[in-house]
Fold this protein.
Amino acid sequence: MEEKRPSISRGETEVLKALWQIEQGGVGEIYEAVDPSLDMDYSTVQTYVRRLEAKGYLTSQRRGRSKIYEAAIRRAQVVREAIDEFVHRMFDGDFLPMVKHLVDSREISSDEIDDLMRIVNELKQDQEDKDAS
Amino acid sequence: MEEKRPSISRGETEVLKALWQIEQGGVGEIYEAVDPSLDMDYSTVQTYVRRLEAKGYLTSQRRGRSKIYEAAIRRAQVVREAIDEFVHRMFDGDFLPMVKHLVDSREISSDEIDDLMRIVNELKQDQEDKDAS
DNA sequence: TCCTTTCGAGTACAAATGTACTCAATTCAT
DNA sequence: ATGAATTGAGTACATTTGTACTCGAAAGGA
């Protein structure tokens, strides 16, 4: 089991997202990959990278003079933890009200509803399969 | 339309949750209502209340020597904004992957699946009703 | 070779956040 | 009435976060 690492801030999350996208790269490449609409300074990216490494979210290996970074934690893992944290914070850990809010508070296209249907049906299927065993 | 107020921190959120629960009350009562497992100091609650008022999340009215506070923003509103922020941050605004993660990353009881079904069916119903008009 | 660009490493610093103390006024129980 | 508890108001302070600058080494182009 991994240690539980410190949580990350919004800015750090953005940099991590960029790194997940490019899989690996130096600060320059990460900088390129960060959502441009954020208009994040190179130095700022640099700082976040440093902090992320300190927090154990990514590892680096030297290659010549520069450093290649790589995420040390999979996206799904971080996302899961963030969701858990969020559901606990806002709904005392009860995820259904969360889903309800999610779908209630925005307009959803028919396609999305169908996708939702599919997701839930799959769940139900799995559950029935399990019951049958 | 309301101004967009500053966002609130975890601690502030907890105090706001407490206030939503008791509807209204002085700092003492809010303090009592805060999730005890957080073990939040009276003074800390006091500070959060002050900051929440400054941020426009709650209003107060004097009653004698003490002050009665009341939430100025409905829970649903705050929750919606928080969810939006979260979905944007983690899923670039795309809520389906969010739901998928939500249901994938935990064990869900049959009852909960049925509830989910109900929620989604209701959605579908609404959508069809709308189409019919 | 000399200039420009690129990095890493370190430092800076204000705002936000978590957490708490002080003090003065007041209220309450004995 | 007097000491204890409560409350509002203000202050304190370390940590985290957002944002950025400096400096020096290396690398690459002219």
